[in-house]
Specification:
Structural class: alpha/beta
Mean pLDDT: 80
Number of strands: 10
Radius of gyration: 16 Å
Shape: globular
Helix content: 10-25%
Distance between the termini: 39 Å
Strand order of the largest sheet: 1-4-3-2-5-6-10-9
């Protein structure tokens, strides 16, 4: 019997025009997204994110910027009885995620079209919040809103685990050679759409877009020098720290974890 996957729309009328960065620049390329991510080794990052998070069966997990469902699928592989909620503003990506996540016979999934500045789950309802390659698409104000929402939805003792580009290139810390094309975007679309000269932003949905390099967004530098840890700490989460790094797509991904007291 296929795994139950429920879908709903949580986009309010006033949010209908909010912009976001799709998984690939042209929607007709979306079916190729997973293949490109697999070839370029992005799935190693999804698996490691779940390992660091330490998700166990019966946990409630919110995947912010779930895109086509790759990180959510890794959660269910590690913890088949988990209850997973995936959030993304891209309806096309969510349709692909639904087909993918039905291929299982345990656990339960809800996919919600919406934005990360307003997480559509109740207070203190989640054991884990996870997100991959989302924050570097989001302006600081939107990041701060998301961090406050993460604190709200986590249960006491619950953890957030974020994998995102470390910001070294954008901050001028890394070598300047060869930022690859190919970063990703679902995950971050955001509550309020933002555009700038380097591409459109948003925040709320996200994964990694094999097509836009880390230097292609204006907000990479926010992650440098412990920016993600600082963001979570200022929101009221405790013990925020960078657990490890992983080379990916010619850049460096940092895994950051924090906990609700």
């Amino acid at each position: 019997m296929p795994r139950p996957v429920h879908r709903r729309d949580d986009v309010r009328p006033e949010e209908a025009d909010h912009d976001y960065l799709p998984g690939l620049p042209q929607r007709w390329l979306l079916p190729w997204y997973d293949l490109v991510a697999r070839v370029r080794g992005v799935h190693r990052m999804y698996r490691r994110t779940v390992e660091i998070a330490g998700v166990v069966d019966d946990a409630h997990v919110l995947d912010v910027g779930c895109g086509t469902g790759n990180l959510s699928r890794e959660v269910l592989r590690a913890a088949p009885e988990a209850t997973v909620t995936g959030l993304d503003p891209d309806g096309d990506a969510l349709r692909r995620a639904a087909r993918k996540l039905r291929r299982g016979d345990s656990g339960e999934v809800t996919l919600i079209r919406g934005f990360a500045h307003r997480l559509p789950v109740p207070d203190a309802s989640q054991d884990h919040v996870v997100s991959s390659l989302a924050l570097h698409h989001v302006p600081l104000e939107e990041k701060q809103q998301l961090a406050a929402e993460i604190l709200r939805v986590l249960r006491r003792g619950g953890r957030v685990t974020i994998a995102d580009f470390a910001g070294d290139h954008a901050a001028g810390h890394g070598d300047d050679g060869g930022t690859p094309e190919g970063q990703h975007g679902h995950a971050h679309r955001t509550g309020r759409g933002h555009r700038h000269g380097r591409g459109h932003q948003g925040h709320g949905g996200a994964e990694h877009q094999p097509g836009h390099g880390p230097g292609s967004t204006a907000y990479d530098a926010d992650n440098a020098d412990g920016g993600i840890e600082k963001l979570l700490t200022e929101a009221g989460l405790r013990d925020a720290c960078a657990v490890e790094r992983m080379p990916l797509l010619g850049d460096s991904v940092v895994f950051v974890q924090a906990q609700r007291a």
